[in-house]
Design a protein that fits this description.
Elements: H1 6-9, H2 16-31, H3 35-43, H4 47-56, H5 59-68, H6 71-80, H7 83-89, H8 95-102, H9 107-114, H10 119-126, H11 132-139, H12 146-149, E1 156-158, H13 163-171, H14 175-178, E2 183-187, E3 193-198, H15 199-204, E4 222-223, H16 228-237, E5 242-246, E6 252-257, H17 258-276, H18 289-316, H19 318-323, H20 331-354, H21 363-393, H22 396-426, H23 435-457, H24 459-462
Parallel strand pairs: 1-2, 4-5
Antiparallel strand pairs: 2-3, 5-6
Helix pairs in contact: 2-3, 2-4, 4-6, 6-8, 8-10, 9-11, 16-17, 17-20, 18-23, 20-22, 20-23, 21-22, 22-23
């Protein structure tokens, strides 16, 4: 009874504080042995909020809910969880119980989850599933490609059908199977994709007309091995709600939905952001401490080595610094400004590359534009820094050294922020892979060489 009225009582939790309050309330009910109240309170939430709440509950209470909630309802929660989160929740849960939950999840979600189990466990879990063949087929595809993300539950009609027979065929399915059908794919006798039509065309066309008369023959599709980020760009560019997926021979094997692409774009943006600063994508802010350390430490150690290069540069100019100690005051100014400017440029370039806004032919124009921006910023900021240095220490030569070094370092930052991701892309390496660390290192080292080198040349007049 409680499970059947969930749709009528769903009340969303607006904030993190609301979720924490719900966690506290549920824990209190379960500790007081008020099972009915706790279950009713939990089922009154939308599935997305149920996922957030159950992840924050103590393990004992998680196990209670897993055993109390019907598999069909828990499958909705599973669809809101990341794969790792679901696997963690299912720790020490009997495989038979997990199988009953996965039975009600979409095949693509079930396939992603089953990839984390051993071959023997995966076989056991799929033995009694209705869509076992479909799930096993999806498991053979890379989860980063269209094949691993597509659903094989879609509607297609034969091009030889009439409009009336196509409509009758669609009506033969129950409303729970339709799942918001807005367009229908059309195939030939050999299951080759030949077109698509929307429901509006179907209901307004004469019943006796052939389906081939209402299709859009120029249909956009992707192969099963197309990168999921490329799929998202195609759907965004052409305003597609459904994107057909074909095998290497052109047979229709699945479709991608726009709701899947929203998740992909969010995940890819997060992945790029994490990689730019050298953080593993598996790291969660409130996750296990050792997972966070493992995900962050390697690049911090590499950064320690690269910062050491800047320290080596400074030691090469010890004599200059010992004679004009005031030069040390502006070292963090020169290095820091270059690092920030380089990271700005890098972020814009990497993001534009991820969105497909930059082509190889744009490289020269982009580089010249960013050099121009670096030149203008360098002149403006170098002038300000030089004037401050002059009035602070009363030496026009120190002011000139600071100003020129600032100008040069901002130009270097612009060049490195553009060229580094383009070079990595040419080498088939992810441009976001710790690029920020590399750009900061370049601006630190080159900026310090320029700054202290100029100071060394002008040392006779400075002193």
């Amino acid at each position: 009874m409680l499970n059947s009225i969930i749709g009528n009582l769903a009340r969303p939790l607006g904030t993190t504080e609301d979720i924490d309050q719900k966690v506290y309330s549920l824990s209190s009910h379960m500790e007081s042995k008020h099972r009915g109240t706790a279950l009713f309170s939990f089922l009154s939430l939308p599935s997305a909020d149920q996922a957030d709440v159950i992840l924050r509950l103590p393990r004992e209470h998680q196990l209670n809910l897993i055993s109390w909630v019907k598999p069909a309802n828990f499958a909705l929660i599973a669809e809101e969880l990341e794969t790792g989160e679901f696997i963690h929740l299912m720790t020490n849960i009997p495989l038979s119980d997990i199988s009953r939950i996965l039975e009600f999840t979409s095949p693509s979600i079930a396939a992603d989850i089953l990839k984390n189990f051993s071959q023997a466990d995966s076989y056991f879990l799929t033995q009694h599933m209705r869509h076992a063949d479909e799930i096993l087929a999806l498991m053979s595809y890379d989860s980063k490609n269209a094949g691993g993300l597509m659903t094989t539950s879609f509607f297609s009609v034969n091009q030889s059908m009439t409009v009336g027979s196509a409509a009758e065929y669609i009506r033969s399915f129950s409303y729970t199977d339709l799942d918001d059908v807005s367009s229908v794919l059309v195939v030939d006798d050999k299951e080759f994709l030949v077109g698509i039509f929307n429901i509006t065309r179907l209901v307004t066309a004469p019943l006796g007309d052939p389906v081939s008369s209402i299709i859009f023959p120029s249909i956009i599709s992707v192969a099963v091995d197309t990168d999921r980020e490329e799929c998202a760009r195609i759907m965004e560019r052409y305003n597609l709600l459904t994107l057909p997926v074909t095998d290497e021979y052109g047979h229709l094997v699945g479709t991608l939905k726009i709701e899947d692409m929203i998740f992909v774009l969010q995940e890819e943006a997060t992945e790029d952001m994490y990689r730019m600063v050298g953080v593993d994508e598996e790291v969660k802010l409130l996750g296990p401490i050792w997972v966070s350390i493992k995900g962050r430490f390697p690049w911090l150690f590499i950064n320690l080595i690269t910062v050491g290069l800047a320290a080596v540069v400074i030691t090469l100019f010890q004599s200059t610094l010992s004679q004009v100690l005031v030069l040390a005051v502006f070292i963090p100014v020169i290095a820091g400004q270059g690092g920030i400017a380089g990271t700005q440029t890098l972020t814009l370039v990497v993001r534009s590359m991820a969105l497909g806004e930059i082509r190889k032919s744009d490289s020269a124009r982009l580089l010249s534009k960013e050099i121009g921006i670096g030149l203008i910023h360098g002149v403006m900021l170098g002038l300000v820094a030089g004037i401050v240095a002059y009035y602070w220490h009363g030496s026009e030569y120190i002011g000139a050294v600071v100003g020129v070094a600032m100008l040069g370092n901002l130009i270097v930052a612009s060049i490195s922020g553009v060229s580094l991701p383009l070079i990595l892309k040419t080498l088939n390496i992810d441009p976001a892979l710790a690029s920020a660390v590399a750009v900061t290192t370049l601006t630190d080292v080159i900026g310090l060489v320029l700054y202290l080198g100029l100071a060394t040349i002008l040392l006779p007049v400075i002193t």
